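Give me the fold.
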Amino acid sequence: MTITLSPYLNFAGNGREAMTYYHGIFGGELQLFGYADFGMKDMPDDGLMHGNLQVNEGLSISASDAMPGAEQTWGGTRVYCSFFGDDLTTMQGWFEALAADGSVGMPLEKQVWGDIYGLVKDKYGIEWMFNVSAPGGWSQQD
């Protein structure tokens, strides 16, 4: 059996812009479907009904714009998108690209548990955690 978990992000009218931004950082295949593509009345013509960014077999991001009025219910809930892996070069590049237009909550650096970890909030307010471990773990001297 195969099970995957992928973040599904919700935006306040700028979902198309955000997904295009993530596509520029992560690469992959981007599909965007607007409310107008499905003839949905009483919805913003430029609103994102569903978007999917398939980066690779293990990484995909989906998103939509909030239904009109739903953005008023936001608040109090924080969700982080977390990367775990051992490809420091790739994850460091993603971290820096997200931080360029956002803000760093914790620099990408070695932590007490031995891994390299960092936290960045992108320009859309999405928080991304990066935990990079070397195959076999990091030595105490690293």
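The chain has a mean pLDDT of 85.
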